[in-house]
Design brief:
Length: 97
Amino acid sequence: MQFIPVLVLMVLFFVMMFGIGFILNMLMKTTWFPSYLFVIVILPVVVYSLWDHSSTLVSHLGSFQLVDYMTGVAGLAGAIISGWTIQKLRLGGYRMF
């Protein structure tokens, strides 16, 4: 596992989920919807799509590497921080958010 590609991948997932979450929050006037969407829809879809069904769920989750978990956490952090940012902007008086 090389450090630079993992760092770039984590930053990419963070920025991507932050941007998507920020836009969804502005359009739907919600605060935490992208975070819930990431945990309830995106993570299970990714796990299910990569599962070969010949192994158990626990062994399948154990087959993921540290890089996979780090990128997932970075994406979740981007979604959570986008909700936090929208919340702070609304508290600051910005009505368009």
